[in-house]
Write a structure and sequence with these properties.
Shape: elongated
Strand content: 15-25%
Number of strands: 11
Order of helices and strands: HHHHHHHHHEEEEEHEEHEHEHEHE
Strand order of the largest sheet: 9-8-7-10-11
Distance between the termini: 33 Å
Largest sheet: 5 strands, parallel
Helix content: 40-55%
Structural class: alpha/beta
Radius of gyration: 25 Å
Length: 450
């Protein structure tokens, strides 16, 4: 992919470029939630009796649920400011957290509203439920949206995620858009906070239309423009290690993408039945004006089909995303710790990260080391240190503890440490680094396990 005379080293990054707007974004989101509660307060008179309290609590939960639905769509929109500056992993965690809040608020809204209406009408909860669903405006659509949101929530739970394929989870998750659309009408039709209040109604429309516009632009129109402009196709596929394959993608004007080592794209290969799923894979070499490369381990239906790709297959890509880049560096000393196929973004950083760089590569055995020849070549050229952490002859796992890290890397507390690997491995290394004295601001890791 990249020969030695084509290598590029990333330039130093100014402190201003390293600052993340994550805290500001969270503050805005919480301020929006407070404004939603204020909307209920402004539109509500005196609350009387148990029915009034139940209904009032249900309306607050409903308004916050509606706001959370808009936040969910906004976080799913893949806005570059969030995906790159904040970090795709943080956005993914926010999205997962917002999803859990949304489901909890939805349950509270349904239960409290029905209980309040039943108390007000002196009717049974079942009778009130049937009446609300069948007689109230837009409630049939809202009920369908509620069922879809529950389905999305169930399939997103960790226990369910471990038992389902990424492809199944992906398609079910897309139904969130349909759920939000179906539920939107009843908020305005039945909400006291909006009836006869044009300003509040206009603000609600702006909120929903705004996030819809973001989703349309960044998830549909921008990818269409990217792929029409760059015309990506598979150039070659070759094996790197057992079950690990590199895919070289050729295109036009790829330097215009602004992709950086350590980032990833979401890929669709329009062949071999792979075009229906968008899957994130990191760049495993610095991007070139005509070539991009990813390295994939066969873990699911999509990745297992990668070896079957043929040269010339059309490729649909979205990105670049991710903040595991040289922008995060705060010193001239860096330690890269990779495990398994997590070597892919760190291989690109190993070639381009400025300063004194060491790579520690964890694998079961020598046969599992992907991209090993390239890593050796880069280490010789840079004068960098390349270390392997392999299982012993009897299967003993290498010691990657705070004590071993301090012994192997004196002054590790002053290093920037980049981690990429399976979630459990990354978590263990993160805790070991903290125990070794490395501050959180110098530990850089993107995790997409929710």
């Amino acid at each position: 992919m990249t020969t030695l005379d084509e290598r590029r080293v990333a330039p130093p990054v100014s402190p201003a470029a390293r600052r993340s707007p994550g805290g500001l974004v969270l503050a805005v989101l919480w301020a929006g939630a407070a404004a939603v509660v204020g909307l209920w307060w402004a539109g509500t008179g005196s609350v009387v009796g148990s029915a009034g309290y139940l209904t009032g609590a249900g309306r607050i939960a409903g308004l916050l649920c509606g706001y959370a639905c808009a936040v969910l769509v906004g976080l799913m929109a893949r806005v570059p400011l969030l995906e790159v500056r904040v970090g795709s992993d943080r956005v993914a965690r926010w999205h997962a957290m917002a999803g859990r809040y949304t489901i909890c608020l939805l349950v509270a809204h349904v239960v409290l509203i029905l209980a309040g209406y039943a108390a007000q009408d002196h009717a049974s909860l079942w009778h009130e439920t049937v009446t609300v669903v069948t007689d109230y405006p837009d409630m049939l659509k809202a009920t369908a949206g509620t069922v879809i949101l529950f389905a999305v929530g169930i399939t997103s739970a960790r226990a369910a995620r471990r038992r389902t394929s990424y492809e199944f989870w992906y398609y079910v998750h897309l139904l969130t858009y349909a759920a939000v659309f179906l539920a939107f009408g009843h908020q305005l039709a039945l909400g006291n906070e909006f009836n006869g209040k044009p300003v509040a109604t206009a603000v609600w429309y702006v909120l929903y239309l705004g996030v819809a516009a973001l989703a349309l632009w960044y998830r549909v129109l921008a990818p269409v423009r990217l792929n029409l402009r760059h015309r990506l196709r598979v150039d070659s596929v070759h094996q790197e290690a057992p079950g690990v394959y590199s895919v070289v993608v050729r295109g036009l004007h790829l330097d215009e993408l602004g992709a950086r080592p350590g980032q990833f794209f979401r890929w669709r290969f329009l062949g071999e039945g792979m075009g229906w799923t968008s899957t994130p894979y990191s760049l495993s070499a610095p991007p070139r004006p005509d070539l991009l490369r990813i390295t994939v381990k066969a873990l699911g239906d999509h990745s297992a089909a990668v070896p079957l790709l043929r040269p010339g297959t059309r490729v649909w890509a979205e990105g670049p995303y991710g903040s595991l880049t040289a922008d995060r560096a705060t010193s001239h000393h860096a330690l890269l710790i990779a495990a398994g196929v997590g070597i892919t973004p760190l291989r690109a950083l190993f070639e381009t990260l400025p300063g004194d760089v060491t790579l520690l590569y964890r694998a079961r055995g020598a046969e599992d080391l992907a991209l090993g020849a390239e890593l050796e070549q880069i280490a010789r050229w840079r004068g960098a240190q390349l270390l392997y952490a392999l299982n012993g002859p009897g299967g003993e796992r290498p010691d990657i503890s705070a004590q071993s890290l301090r012994a192997a890397f004196p002054g590790i507390a002053g290093h920037d440490v980049y981690i990429c690997g399976p979630h459990g491995f990354a978590q263990d290394v993160y805790e070991a680094l903290r125990a070794a004295g490395v501050p959180d601001r110098r530990i850089h890791h993107e995790s997409f396990e929710l």
